[in-house]
TrEMBL record:
Family annotation (SUPFAM superfamilies): NTF2-like, Sigma2 domain of RNA polymerase sigma factors, Sigma3 and sigma4 domains of RNA polymerase sigma factors
Protein name as annotated: RNA polymerase sigma-70 factor, ECF subfamily
PANTHER family (UniProt xref): ECF RNA POLYMERASE SIGMA FACTOR SIGJ, SIGMA 19 FACTOR
Keyword Transferase included in the entry's annotation: no
Biological source species: Actinacidiphila paucisporea
Length: 307
């Protein structure tokens, strides 16, 4: 098998490592491409192509993450990961870990870790790499990597929900949510929302956004019931779609261009968090991006009383 074929076979794994490290589809794709360039330029064949490429993409991701953290400190408004529509890597033996680790909630917890802690956690807990490989990848001793893994697990465990609905329950609850959303049913929405539900939007200053996170079932239900049926009247469509392995939707303008994504976090049979990604820079991989400012203007005009 040649280099091209070997790399193509491992590409899903490399992307999945990079995305969990960076929380960005575009940056993960760039990291994978840089990994290929280094692999292609190498004069010798590594003993284990998988170990070599995984180490390279992890090191690149660590460097990118360090510089990205500076940019994120200057980010306008809340920062959310780029929405992932499907994880290209599959491993039946670790399907639960893979699914959990790509959720938006898990990625936000990973943001609390240092770049090295994040790398060790992703390689060890998600992809089951051995400590000798991890130590070689991050340039630390095996004992140091074990300590990093323990700290990372503690941070991640402290922030995890006590109970999350299974897939069937999530899909059923999401179906009821989007039905109530279409109808503008305030009471129906409020019944599905946790009392302390939070709705947050990431526009990065490049699209209309919430002035702040909205909290509380009544406030969130009333806002949803007012805005989303009005959006439907100007031909904005809702396309149910998994977002980071959890129920969600892609919203498109009348021309089919992507306006934003919406993802749901479910806990104890209720919706705990609603996250909207509106920043056009984070939506290009989903499809052609709509002009959110134009749609916002149309929405305001549609809600203005007739003279």
């Amino acid at each position: 098998m040649g280099k091209v074929e070997e790399f193509a076979e491992l590409r899903p794994l490399l992307f999945s490592i990079a995305y969990r490290m960076l929380g960005s589809v575009s940056e993960a794709e760039d990291a994978v491409q840089e990994t290929w360039l280094r692999f292609e330029a190498g004069p010798t064949q590594p003993r284990s192509t998988k170990s070599f490429l995984s180490a390279v993409v992890t090191r690149i991701s660590i460097d990118v993450l360090r510089s990205a953290r500076v940019r994120r400190e200057e980010y306008i408004g809340p920062w959310l990961p780029e929405p992932l529509l499907a994880d290209p890597y599959e491993d039946p033996a670790r399907s639960a870990e893979l699914a959990d680790s790509v959720s938006t909630a898990a990625l936000l917890l990973l943001e609390r870790l240092s770049p090295l802690e994040r790398a060790v956690f992703v390689l060890r807990e998600v992809f089951d790499f051995g400590f000798p490989e991890i130590a070689s990848t991050v340039g630390r001793s095996q004992d140091a990597c074990r300590q990093l893994a323990v700290r990372a697990r503690q941070h991640m465990s402290a922030g995890r929900p006590r109970f999350e609905a299974d897939r069937k329950e999530r899909e059923e609850l999401a179906g009821r949510f989007f039905g109530a959303l279409r109808e503008g049913d305030v009471d129906g929405l409020q019944q599905l929302l946790a009392a302390d539900v939070s709705m947050v939007g990431d526009a990065g200053g490049k699209a209309p956004q919430l002035a702040r996170a909205i909290t509380g079932a009544e406030k969130v239900a009333r806002l949803l019931a007012a805005v989303f049926p009005a959006m439907a009247r100007i031909d904005v469509t809702t396309e149910p779609h998994a977002i980071n392995g959890r129920p969600g939707a892609i919203f498109r303008d009348r021309n089919g261009k992507v306006l934003h994504t919406l993802g749901l976090d479910l806990l104890d049979g209720q919706i705990q968090t609603i996250r909207l990604v509106l920043n056009p820079d984070k939506l290009g991989h989903v499809g052609p991006v709509a002009d959110a400012w134009t749609v916002s203007h149309e929405l305001k005009e549609s809600r203005r009383p007739a003279e």
